[in-house]
Specification:
The protein is built from eleven helices and 22 strands. The chain is an alpha/beta fold. A five-stranded parallel sheet has the order 5-2-1-9-19. The protein has a four-stranded parallel sheet with strand order 13-12-11-17. It has helices at 11-24, 45-49, 55-58, 63-67, 118-121, 130-145, 162-177, 206-216, 321-339, 383-402, 408-416, and strands spanning 3-7, 29-34, 38-40, 59-61, 72-75, 78-82, 87-90, 95-97, 100-103, 108-109, 150-154, 186-190, 219-222, 225-231, 234-240, 246-253, 256-260, 263-264, 296-298, 352-357, 362-368, 376-381. The chain is globular and about 65 Å long. A hairpin with a 4-residue loop joins β7 and β8. It folds into two domains: 3-109 and 264-347, FAD/NAD(P)-binding domain (3-Layer(bba) Sandwich), CATH 3.50.50; 111-262, FAD/NAD(P)-binding domain, CATH 3.50.50.60. The structure holds flavin-adenine dinucleotide. Flavin-adenine dinucleotide (FAD) binds next to α1, β2, α9 and β20.
Length: 423
Amino acid sequence: MATIIVVGAGLGGMSAAYELKAELGQQHEVILINNKPDFEFTPSNPWIAVEWRQRKETSIPIEPYVRKKSIRFIASGLESLNAAQQQLELADGQKLNYDFLVLCTGPELAFDEITGAGPDAGGTSSVCTLTHAEHCRDNVNKLINEPGHVIVGAMPGASCFGPAYEYAFILDKHLRDKKVRKSVPMTFITSEPYIGHLGLNGVGDSKGMLESELRQRDISWICNAKTLGIIDGKMEIDELDEDGNVKRHHSLPYQHAMMLPAFRGIAPLRSIEGLVNPRGFVLVDDHQRNPKYPQIYAAGVCIAIPPLSKTPVPTGVPKTGYMIESMVRAITHNIKAELMGQQPTCKATWNAICLADMGDTGAAFVAMPQIPPRNVAWFKKGKWVHLAKIGFEKYFLHKMQIGDTEPMYERFMLKYLGIDKLE
Ligand SMILES: Cc1cc2nc3c(=O)[nH]c(=O)nc-3n(C[C@H](O)[C@H](O)[C@H](O)COP(=O)(O)OP(=O)(O)OC[C@H]3O[C@@H](n4cnc5c(N)ncnc54)[C@H](O)[C@@H]3O)c2cc1C
């Protein structure tokens, strides 16, 4: 009997544990480890911040559901990994050995790289975790009582831009509903070289479309924004030109700011030579396997993907649900092959398909492959995206409860939404 340990029970890890168990059956043990007892559906976090969702609607306890599929769950954080010995240690002191390890630990949020940023330092809010989104909600409620300037955007080194746009549009709608929008000037501040770059060199007409959406909602913007820090209640920003020189300095007072941070790999993995890159992201080959420690596979935001191109302010490439699902699928097939004495052959398809909510409408983008030139670069707006995103949330949470292993993005996004007909 082999022991396969999955660390991280987010979007990638939950799916990985269910898929591995379904494929490998009772003769192998699957253990799922997470530093929190609940699964949180991260894409719903912007809705938490404007009270369109409550915690219990977007999170579920992990243990009762995975137990039904004979997956052992341990609610404790990974403390250290001895990759050479194939052993890990948890925060509760347990030591576990594995035959295969699947790392799905998501990002560590690098707020500390910008002075004063993040909910702990208090300078900016975040929607990256459910707890952060709840903290952000409290700040939004304060803003409604005492309206003032709002800043939304992404810090230098950020890779996940979609939720910043989503949050800006959702907050705009929420403030309009609360009848205070006229007292709230909004600025979108981003490390992207242009609006709609998204870490992907744009997708279809994402630039024109997102600029138009911001304009229609009276949201001004600053691109190539190198946020320096939050000092004396003001956000200090150098706006760079395309050669990376400072074009203008902005010192902006504000009442509420939600800025997505740069990501890095989690602390327990960061110093393991050969496992991770300098930012702590796990190095993987075409089969999602670490070249130095081939018993270690990784999927999701924790893996290393080089930026598509150099930008004046550093930006990264987003890792989104469809790719993550595909990585998990590849890992399951490859571990199964290895257990049968074969070589891993399965590769993930790195396509980006995303639904971005805008409050009452939404924008969908499809980049196939994620890296240009692409077969499909499609970006469309419509109320159907808002509705599809609601359906998608319900569907995914249900899938996590019943342990369904059908590839959901493929089924929901490609077939149901008809995106498969694009290629
Ligand atoms: C606000 C937001 C909205 C997004 N919206 C979308 C969207 O609409 N569509 C889309 O395709 N993508 C979206 N993404 C991008 C991406 O799909 C998500 O970030 C997704 O949650 C990433 O999945 P993951 O499994 O890699 O990491 P996560 O979902 O972050 O899961 C990581 C898990 O590891 C656990 N963990 C961390 N450290 C440890 C440790 N030391 N020990 C044990 N466990 C640990 C965490 O608690 C967490 O449960 C969004 C991202 C953000 C931040």
